[in-house]
Each structure stands twice: as C-alpha cells, then as structure tokens.
Fold:
Amino acid sequence: EVQLVESGGGLVQPGRSLRLSCAASGFNFDDNAMHWVRQVPGKGLEWVSGISWNSGSIDYVDSVKGRFTISRDNAKNSLFLQMNSLRPEDTALYYCASSEEFRRYSSGYYMTKFHSWGRGTLVTVSS
Amino acid sequence: DIVMTQSPDSLAVSLGERATINCKASQSVLFTSNSRNHLAWYQQKPGQPPRLLIYWASTRESGVPDRFSGSGSGTDFTLTISSLQAEDVAVYYCQQYYRTPPTFGQGTRLEI
Structure:
C-alpha cells in the first residue's frame, strides 16, 4: 500500500523558517517524481513545487521562488521542503504527492498525474 | 499560468441521478507529442486528501467506480457521475498538468 506521511508543520512567526518532510513507503520512491501541494483550509489546491526522480528537474510556483527549496533523499525514501522567510500567506495544509514523471525538456516541463497523496501537515505563519 | 475554471461552483443532485461538472482551461492542454490531454480530476472528501479519479481527461484510475467518467479535449472537459451515490458527496477539482505550474480549478462542491 502506498503511504506518504508528512511531518514538520507547526506555528511559526513571519520571517522564520520551517522544514517539512514526507516519508514514502509501499512504492518505488526513486522511480517517481514528487510534489508539494498546499491548501488553505476550506479553499482550493495550489501546487508549490515539484522534483524529478533524480533531482535533475525542479520547479516552483512564482510566489515561493527564492524562499522555498525542494529536495529528496532516495536512499531514505524522503522528500523535503525547506521554507524560509515565511509569510502569513504561506499558511496552509501542505501535502506531498507523487507522479510518474516531472522532467524538463526544451519547451518546459513534462508532467503526469498526481497518483498518490499524503494526509498533509499544517503550517501556520503568525505572530 | 493556465487558468482552470470549473462550473458550477456547487451542485445538488438526487441519489441515482446524473451529475455533470465542467472544466475550462484558458489554453489547450492537448500535448501534441503524445496526443494526450494533460487533464486530471480529483475527489476530495472532508478531512481527506485529494484522490485521483481520472487522468488523460478520460482514463479512470484503478479502483474508481465506473459511474465516474471523463470527457473532452483541448480546453473543455467534463466529469460525469452517471448515478450519484451518497458516498460521492465531495469537492471535485480538475487539474492541468500540461505546463508548470500545474493548476487546479476552484473546485465544485457536490451535494445530495
């Protein structure tokens, strides 16, 4: 059974940092691309960042570029999101999700559907 | 960014009746290299993460009941539930994965 378990969320002051983790099991983690998607409670879904199986392709939504860094450790079946300079508008439930492909090519990125999702970890940015 | 617009925002359908949700993309999500529409549908129930229902606009994910179907191409897509069951109460999202950032519709709340 595919399992994605996020951790690391919490209450943090504006301008501070937080590191989220996602532990994967039940599938070949190193054959899959991974993503972070966030959702303000009661609102819609927003993709935050994606990373290819070998970390060779990475992208971010414009609102987090320069502040967030996605990474993965295939030996530990883990995905990470380092979030710096946090803002109140980053407050959300952060999900990790897997997809078969996410790779850069000449005209952009080739992606496939998000086939598995974790249950999320809540990040609250407030003074 | 590609804007995904769903209609309606909410929908009430009687048990056993058909439910139809529409999704319009601000530009085509048909990838010419593979002739596939990079469009997925997800179901989200309260307190749960999204669940993949449909991908490539019309391919049902394994384990998804066959009352769920997807159609459309280019910029206009539809999710149809042929005979609504009580467990189908949820918010439904379309998503384009044609171009980064992959974007979602605003969601359609489906009620009995």
Summary: Chain A touches chain B through 24 residues (CB under 8 Å). The mean pLDDT of chain A is 97. The CA atoms of residues 56 and 118 of chain A lie 23 Å apart.
